[in-house]
Amino acid sequence: MKIVVIQGPNLNMLGVREQHIYGPMKLEEIHAQMKNFAEQNEIEIEFFQSNLEGEIVDRIQECLGDAHGIIINPAAYSHTSIAIRDAIAAVEIPTIEVHLSNIHAREDFRKKSLTAEVCAGVIAGVGPFGYHLAMIGMTQIISEIQAMQEAQAQAEQGQNA
Ligand code: DQA
Q: Which of 4, 51, 101, 138 could form a disulfide with 69 if both were Cys (CB 3.0 to 4.6 A apart)?
């Protein structure tokens, strides 16, 4: 099972930027915790951060045929990027969107996420722990898909016998 974690603009500044909203934890620390969880659960994991919309689109496209799941915090692009939304929809890979802050309890322009609408699930407002919850949710989603595919394959084998 392979999960790709994609982090949007300004998340490289976690631990420095607006600590009263995003807390003191650095992105590297969040990723270290996710890596621990992945190792304990035999999950392959890759991390990517970019401040550029096109690079995020490229990274999502690269997941095609490679990753079983995507965990993404598109950050400010959640509220503006049709390109990132279309990329998530195009690859048809289960995707969970994470926001450290509760975007629904902030400015009006943050309340709508264009990207969340094409995701399997959204976790917002529980800080860095949201990424951990996303890992648990994603392993569950992927396991269910794999179990369904195996059952389908078995049923087809039965029909052909
Ligand atoms: C964020 C929320 C966005 O509105 C904001 O632009 C971010 C971070 C969050 O994780 O809470 O950069 O995605």
A: 138
The whole model's pTM is what?
0.96
For 45-128, where are the alpha helices, taking DSSP H only? 53-62, 82-91, 108-111
Closest residue CA from atom 1 of ligand 1: 75
Nearest CA, atom 13, ligand 1: 75
Task: Give catalytic residues, as residue numbers.
Answer: 22, 99
Q: What separation in Å is there between the alpha carbon of 8 and the centre of ligand 1?
A: 9
Residues lower than pLDDT 50 in the chain: none
Choosing from 53, 72, 84, 101 the residue with most ligand 1 atoms within 8 A of its CB, the one to mutate for a pocket test is 101
Q: Please report the pLDDT score of residue 159 as a whole number.
A: 87
- pLDDT given at position 49: 98
pLDDT at 160: 83
Superfamily of 2-160 according to CATH: Dehydroquinase, class II (3.40.50.9100)
Residue-level pLDDT at 161: 77
Angle between helices 27-40 and 129-160 (to 10 degrees): 40
DSSP 52-64: -HHHHHHHHHHTT
